[in-house]
Design a protein that fits this description.
The complex is a heterodimer of chains A (about 280) and B (about 290).
Chain A: H1 11-17, H2 19-22, H3 26-49, H4 54-71, H5 80-111, H6 120-135, H7 138-149, H8 153-177, H9 182-189, H10 194-227, H11 237-245, H12 249-278
Helix pairs in contact in A: 4-12, 5-8, 5-10, 6-8, 7-8, 8-10, 9-10, 10-12, 11-12
Chain B: H1 10-48, H2 53-69, H3 83-86, H4 90-122, H5 130-145, H6 148-159, H7 163-187, H8 192-199, H9 204-235, H10 247-255, H11 259-293
The chains are: A mainly alpha (about 280), B mainly alpha (about 290).
Chain lengths: ~280, ~290
């Protein structure tokens, strides 16, 4: 048992002597309960507004149970080759999208970094630009790119690229801002231009961090690339959506397992690559 | 001011610089091989993903003109000239945006609650039994790896169209993402309070309540807020597959070429996401300062 009141027979006396410690911070407690009350009220509001009901949840769970039963055993049917090709396409989309985004975001990251870009207006505009790109989901970008290059995986590559430019610009500029100033000051003090300072003072320090972040994104982009097929931008998502809509549950399960295996594989490869290129030192960044 | 520089004998310099050149040549070779492999991967995946730069360059005008077109009304005027016409559906979309926020909120809250219940079983310092830990971690990994839209697609079939499948899909994904982060926080705590409670005969739940929780709660809240921000973005596209929120109207506007509607809805989404970003950032900042003051 943890110390209970009985173990402190003179609790009242102790609290009288040390009121500041024993009273507890009543203000924090009130705040805590207020937050809980707010959360509960919001939850009730949301549950009623979004039309949750036990009947609906119950019948849905029963349905879901039936689907799960039909998913076993997972089987590709006669479409193993189709699925494998689509999966390869998915990985290719993720790879190209990440790479292109990294190349394009590299200069943007410098433009958005406060310690490199001394022109506040340019820096501010670049930040807002990347914020707006990030506010729009990959699926929406896919829909827009389909209008430009037509249905197919190329639209997917461009979609992944666009939404990653937003994330990379932010991550890169933050990495650049947190870099040690001394090397670039040294370059300047020996007569180098500000471009020299960037090339020899900043890039060597940030490159490992940037590579490591990019590799992380390669893995998460593989996941995003599996879904852009739902709107017609190539990859396994198209087949997945089709199999779900036609109730081919064993194939759905098979595709999901394929995706899980691929993501695990890419996770493994990218963490090995990260270790080889960067060393264990910056993985926490 | 000339110092007498001590120079190594020439043959030793020669030896050292030969070694340096060898090192550098080796590094250059590795870089070249790396670039070659990268190029090969690019070509291969370019082929698989049917990349056609020609098509892109031919149609890049469409991309810019698309952004031009979404800023013109049907009558050919710029959208800014007639705000009422541009945002004709402001109240309708506003309601759907509120639904979207509520979907994200419920998904995050329930996801965080389940993640909270599971995370202690996935932390090595509180669950030494490898079997339970393995099961908990694999479960979280599964929830995290399957994209939420896939769950939404399946749940729409099971639960019917509407926000319910959207909430459940976001919830499951959130369990996976937050469960992992939570368990990492738990693994980094100071174990002394826990040991003290166990030593005085406390049960597992008492040691978590009085030993672990006070240490992790601010971090948990901070991560949950960050996740809420991500989930708002995720909830905005749930409507694409019929799982509620603003996405339904957005995909309809894009597919049916209601250009000015596309820009109006996108701007409303971006504004909402930015407001939520700023709000959660403030809150998280307060949480971290609270933690430091503790």
């Amino acid at each position: 048992m943890i110390p209970s009141r009985d173990l402190f027979p003179d609790r009242a006396a102790v609290s009288a002597r040390h009121p500041s410690i024993m009273a507890g911070s009543s203000r924090a407690q009130v705040m805590g309960w207020a937050v809980v009350a707010l959360l509960v009220a919001l939850t009730i509001l949301a549950l009623t507004r979004l039309e949750f009901s036990f009947a609906r949840l119950g019948s849905g769970l029963v349905q879901l149970g039936t689907f799960l039963g039909l998913m076993i055993p997972p089987s590709p049917g006669t479409q193993l080759v189709t699925f494998s090709k689509a999966l390869a396409e998915t990985v290719a989309i993720a790879f190209l999208g990440t790479l292109l985004a990294a190349i394009i975001s590299f200069p943007i990251g410098f433009l958005a970094a406060r310690n490199v870009m001394t022109n506040r207006i340019v820096q501010f505009m670049t930040r807002r630009f990347s914020d707006s790109i990030r506010g729009v989901d990959t699926l929406i970008w896919a829909l827009i790119w389909i209008n430009v290059v037509g249905l197919g995986p190329f639209a997917g590559v461009l979609a992944i690229m666009t939404s990653d430019i937003g994330s990379f610009s932010k991550l890169y500029s933050e990495a650049i801002e947190s870099v040690d100033r001394k090397p670039s000051e040294g370059v300047i003090s020996t007569g180098g231009s500000s471009l020299h300072a960037v090339r020899f003072g900043i890039i060597p320090a940030v490159l490992p961090v940037l590579i490591s972040q990019t590799l992380y994104y390669f893995e998460s982009n593989t996941r995003s690339a599996t879904i852009i097929g739902i709107v017609g931008a190539g990859g396994i998502g198209l087949h997945l959506a089709e199999m779900i809509r036609t109730f081919e549950w064993d194939r759905v399960a098979f595709i999901i397992l394929m995706v899980l295996a691929t993501v695990a594989l890419i996770d493994f490869v990218s963490s090995r690559l990260r270790l080889a290129l960067v060393g264990p030192r910056v993985t926490s960044v | 001011m000339s110092h007498a520089t001590i120079r190594l004998p020439d043959h030793q310099i020669e030896l050292l610089s030969a070694g340096y050149r060898r090192e550098m040549a080796q590094r250059r070779r590795m870089t070249l091989i790396g670039i070659a492999i990268l190029m090969l991967a690019v070509l291969l995946s370019g082929f698989v993903a049917e990349v056609r730069p020609g098509v892109l360059f031919e149609n890049i005008g469409k991309f810019t003109s698309y952004f031009g077109r979404i800023f013109y009304l049907d009558n050919g005027a710029l959208v800014f000239t007639d705000m009422r016409e541009w945002f004709w559906g402001f109240w309708k979309w506003g309601k759907q945006l509120i639904d979207t926020l509520l979907i994200a909120y419920l998904g995050t809250l329930f996801g965080a609650i389940f993640a909270f219940l599971i995370c202690f079983s996935a932390a090595i310092n509180l669950t030494p039994k490898a079997g339970i830990r393995f099961a908990a971690r694999r479960y979280l990994e599964f929830c995290r790896t399957v994209p939420e839209i896939v769950f939404a697609l399946i749940f729409v079939v099971a639960f019917g169209l509407g926000p319910v499948p959207g909430v459940l899909a976001i919830m499951i994904h959130t369990v996976g993402a937050l469960g992992k982060l939570f368990s990492e926080v738990v693994e980094n705590i100071d174990m002394k309070p826990v040991e003290g409670i166990v030593a005085s005969g406390g049960t597992r739940w008492q040691s978590i309540r009085y030993g672990v929780l006070p240490q992790v709660l601010p971090n948990f809240a901070s991560y949950a807020l960050l996740r809420f921000e991500i989930n708002v973005r995720g909830a905005s596209v749930m409507g694409f597959v019929g799982a509620g929120g603003i996405g339904q109207d957005l995909i309809e506007a894009i597919r049916k070429f209601y250009y000015s509607d596309v820009s109006a809805i996108l701007l409303m989404i971006i504004a909402t996401v930015m407001i939520i970003d700023i709000g959660t950032e403030r809150l998280r900042h307060r949480l971290t300062t609270m933690e430091q003051g503790r």
